[in-house]
Design a protein that fits this description.
six-stranded parallel sheet; 14 helices; eight-stranded mixed sheet
């Protein structure tokens, strides 16, 4: 199979280190690219030009760069050089199937090219807002039109949760296939999920891009109410707007004696982060199915969260769900004071990860779906 993954910001995640933008989508797409390449498929990844060599290979994945994100004249650069360089890169990849993750105008651009060139297109939602008929995260009419076109012309739509599947069906009239997201986790010998802190302070982790929807300010309120608990925070803001939002919140967090700010943590440092904490806290207003949840569960770390994908945290006992700061405070205190409850949740979290989200288990399902799409195409052409 010849697979092309369109992921403008994924070079940093593929190359490793702390350079470039690395979010959940980028981690997923880089993981997919490496897995398919290791399986012997031809794989290309289309990204912004971030100074990498032309057409370099990383772990068997061909990286085809487009223009720089900052290239061109505002207003015109949407078409040239951004769209034109995308078209050129897709043509250079010359793939059988093109995959794109996350709702944006690029969804429509990729779908349009695939329609014209008779190639297959697979789209995957990355957030609940991708499935909201109002498309609240998209600011312009142009973005919404192109995204809707992409949805309605995809050969398959993959959603992260049953909730997203329902939203896509009700709001857009689009069918989708629910697939769990993959996450590399520690081996059994490296994972000690039932070790409960005795003499040392109880530690809670928070890790995300620092932005309005992640609501780090809620964690500051939680920390104020639980002075005996240490809160470890990993993450950084991106862009001018994000930095303006984050600056006062980070200053407030830095002034709290029980909050430790790590800044952005690279991939290699995340296992150590999870090994130190006993709970992971999510304060987001909305999400999709966060990678951090999967990573925490893979280490046997339960979650307390204001966002609960398909109610799995509450229904499966993988931590506790809350709706506000007060609920988070009560949930954390519950686990601090109940060792047996924490141990039980820790064991359930690890077992849930092993049953549903290991890389080979999930990626094999993606592979099967992609191959089925290509086989249907061959049957039609006969």
């Amino acid at each position: 199979m010849n697979l092309c993954i369109v992921a403008h910001f994924a070079y940093g995640a593929l190359a490793g280190g702390t350079l470039g933008h690395v979010g959940g989508v980028e981690r997923q797409t880089s993981l997919m690219a490496k897995w398919f390449a290791a399986r012997g498929h031809r794989v290309s990844l289309l990204t912004w030009d971030e100074g990498q060599p032309a057409d370099c290979f990383i772990d068997g994945v061909q990286v085809i760069k487009m223009c720089r994100q900052s290239a061109g004249v505002p207003g015109i650069r949407f078409f040239y050089p951004r769209w034109t360089s995308l078209i050129a890169a897709m043509a250079q990849a010359d793939a059988e199937i093109y995959y794109q993750n996350c709702g944006e105008y690029v969804t429509g651009q990729v779908a349009l090219w695939c329609q014209r060139k008779k190639r297959r297109f697979a789209y995957s939602s990355a957030n609940d807002t991708d499935c909201d008929v109002a498309l609240p995260a998209m600011r312009t009419f142009r973005e919404k039109i192109l995204y809707r076109y992409g949805l309605h012309h995809a050969d398959i739509i993959i959603s992260q949760t049953k909730k997203q599947q329902q939203m896509l069906r009700d709001g857009f009239g689009c069918r989708s296939t629910v697939l769990p997201m993959p996450c590399p986790g520690p081996a059994e010998i490296e994972c000690h999920p039932t070790v409960f802190p005795k003499k040392e302070p109880f530690r809670v982790g928070w890790a995300a891009r620092i932005s309005k929807e992640k609501r780090l300010e809620l964690l500051v309120k939680v920390a104020d109410a639980l002075p005996e608990v240490i809160f470890e925070v990993g993450g950084a803001a991106t862009g001018k707007e994000g930095e303006e939002y984050a600056q006062p919140i980070l200053a407030a967090a830095a002034s709290r004696p029980n909050i430790i700010l790590h800044g952005r943590i690279n991939r290699e440092g995340m296992p150590l982060f999870y090994s130190r904490i006993k709970l992971f806290c999510c304060t987001s207003a909305y999400e999709g199915f966060p990678n951090t949840f999967l990573e925490a569960w893979s280490h046997g770390v339960p979650i307390v969260s204001t966002f609960d994908p398909d109610n799995c945290i509450a229904e499966l006992g993988l931590g506790k769900a809350a709706t506000d700061a007060r609920g988070l405070i009560d949930s954390i205190r519950y686990f601090v004071e109940n060792q047996e409850a924490w141990i039980a949740a820790s064991i359930r979290a690890r077992e849930y990860y092993l049953r549903n989200h290991t890389v080979d288990e999930v990626m094999a399902r993606f592979e099967q779906i992609f191959l089925e799409i290509l086989q249907r195409k061959k049957n039609i052409e006969r």
